Amino acid sequence: MTNSDSLDDVPSPDDADRVLIGLEINMAGEKVEFKIKLPRGLATWDDLLPFMRTLIAVGSDISQEYFASRDKHVSCRAGCGICCRQRVPLAEFEAHRLRALIESMPEPRRTEVIARFRAAEQRIAELGDSISIGSDLALTMEEMSVRARKYFNLMIACPFLENESCSIYEERPLKCREYLVTSPAELCANPDSSAIVPLPLPLNVYMATLRLGNSPEDSTVRWVPLTSLMSWTDQHEPEQATRTGPELLHEFMNQLSQ
Predict the structure, then answer these.
(1) Quick check: helix, strand or coil at residue 255?
(2) pLDDT tens profile 102-143
(3) 182 with 73: CB under 8 angstroms?
(4) 24 pLDDT more than 80
(5) What is the pLDDT of residues 174-231, one digit of tens each?
(6) Rounded-to-integer distance, Cα 44 and Cα 248, Å
(7) Taking Cα atoms as reference points, which of 34, 25, 45 lies closest to residue 203?
(8) Paired strand residues for 23
């Protein structure tokens, strides 16, 4: 099976300021063609977000089709929100995007969502450094894993979770898009269980976004815990555009290949 995905084939008035780039990517042995329309001039990572999301969607479709043919189906369903108690890592540009989404919400919803974020941060603050984690704190993967398990045990629901379903599903983070399981849903209540079987994906898109801006020899990652995005964005300004769309795409693809 070969997929061909165009993110923007409809002409628009600003087409003269954008460039159409074609890519062919090997995904689980399949050559998939993509067409990406990006600004010719200065751009931000938000300009690449539709492509990032499409990569995950196509990879997920390929993987789900493969495992379904072997009678291993994804068990995730609306209303099954136990995974929404995990500490979701955001790329820094994702944190700013979600903050803008919150600020755009009508009242009283905006105030309600902000209150949920503040309550979650208060519970985390009470535990101090034993669980605190963010893009300004360098940790090993093992340390991150230990803290993530401690966080999950708190059972803090994602502030966007409503009726056990994601209330911002179309804008959900990249990591949430990548997390699917083929094991029984009830097993997800114990993230340490070896019986949980995540759906393997051909590419790890979200991890590539956590390394954006790194030199090839730099193996660290920078990320923002979803429940901490309010306080983090209070203290950090969005990154200013300094590179063109094609330049950003080149860096992203380099990180993705790692």
Answers:
(1) helix
(2) 999 999 999 999 999 999 998 888 876 555 555 555 566 677
(3) yes
(4) yes
(5) 999 999 998 888 888 776 667 888 899 999 999 999 989 888 777 777 888 899 999 9
(6) 8
(7) 25
(8) 34
How many residues are listed for the chain in this entry? 258
* pLDDT for 140: 65
Instruction: Say how far apart CA 39 and CA 44 lie, in whole Å.
Output: 9
Q: How far is CA 145 from CA 71, 135, 150, in A?
A: 31, 15, 9
pLDDT band at residue 244 using 50, 70 and 90 as cut-offs: very high
**pTM (predicted TM-score):** 0.86
Structure-block tokens of residue 167:
């209330």
CA distance 120 to 48: 30
Give the Cα separation of 66 and 59 in Å (integer). Answer: 11
Collect all residues with Cβ–Cβ distance below 8 Å to 238 and sequence separation of at least 6. Answer: 44, 93, 96
Reference 43, options 236, 218, 212; nearest CA is: 212
Burial of 52 (0-12, 13-18, 19+ CB in 10 A): buried
Which residue intervals of 82-129 are DSSP H helices? 92-103, 109-127
Distance (Å, whole) CA 255 – CA 250: 9
In terms of Cα–Cα distance, which of 199, 197, 198, 214 is closest to 256?
214
| 250 Cβ contact list (under 8 Å, min separation 6) | none
Contact yes or no for 74/181 (Cβ under 8 A) = yes
- In this prediction, residue 131 carries a pLDDT of 59
Do the Cβ atoms of 81 and 164 come closer than 8 Å?
A: yes
